[in-house]
């Protein structure tokens, strides 16, 4: 009986707690509007843990746990992998048909050089076919004559050159013996004997290299014929070929590509014509300096300077080094230093005066981009790739700049079209 008061007091306290809970739930239900979502606020955030997640052992969604930076890196990473794979496949295809690609690229460069002549003849009243035939025949005749002249000069001066080279080697041998490096005649003879032994032991490799040279000559002639036919068709039917190419582009992107094409062609034309003019000036002045210094084969060396000028930066170094070496083995050290001075002066004038003035703003490529593009083009396709690399980069730069500007203009035009017309003032009504 003594415990009955404690039991009654515990029962009363329990009833009070139940009443308080019922009262609290009633107030919460009365405070919410009708149709309100009874879902707790914590469930609105997917990153927030649920009320019983810690006790129930449930884990959040893995996508919600990954940080935002890692998600962005992953999204960019797989897209970059797709682009890299596409470029790799494209490079493999280009390597498989390298001869055709280089021949067509050469045809584009020649067309860019000859197209203004065709337009000028058409303005004079000649039909398109006749203007194309006259221009192509004159252009290919000039190229053939230049090649024949170079070969003729080299063969005509070959005997004299060999004698001068032999005298130059003897002169270099005497300079080496008199130098402060203590070079002995026996060391020079040992070096000559080792070179002779190397040549004699590698006769098969030299023969195979000669056969490979014949293969390269056949490929060169094939590519030249393909470039000639491509040039004829591009000169005669270039606009219709471009219109057919536009049909391969998706319709939404067609206006931007249609505007980028003429700008790319103007850039290519400016590059080719400017490079030809700069190369001609370099060849004339360097050839004149070599001729005044009485270095043999001055005219062929000038032609080589002209041809190597189509490889930016690298070509000037190679042609200048060739001229210096010929002067060294034929005329001696003093003449070689004078030729080096002539080459450096002409190249400085070219880099700081001729190229900025002739090419101007039409072809603006950073020197680092020039070096990298020449290196990549040379690795992929040799000399032909090095020649094509810089105009390709210039054209791509022009196309990307135009497409970027066109992409900015489209949203502005769309906003202008959907803008509501202004209401007329009351007085005008």
TrEMBL record:
Keywords: Cell membrane, Membrane, Transmembrane, Transmembrane helix, Transport. The chain crosses the membrane at residues 89-114, 126-151, 214-236, 270-292, 298-318, 325-349, 369-400. Residues 26-59 are annotated as: Disordered. This is AI-2E family transporter. It comes from the Bacteria. It is found in: Cell membrane. It comes from Streptomyces yaizuensis. Belongs to the autoinducer-2 exporter (AI-2E) (TC 2.A.86) family. It is a multi-pass membrane protein. It holds the Pfam family AI-2E_transport. InterPro entries: AI-2E-like.
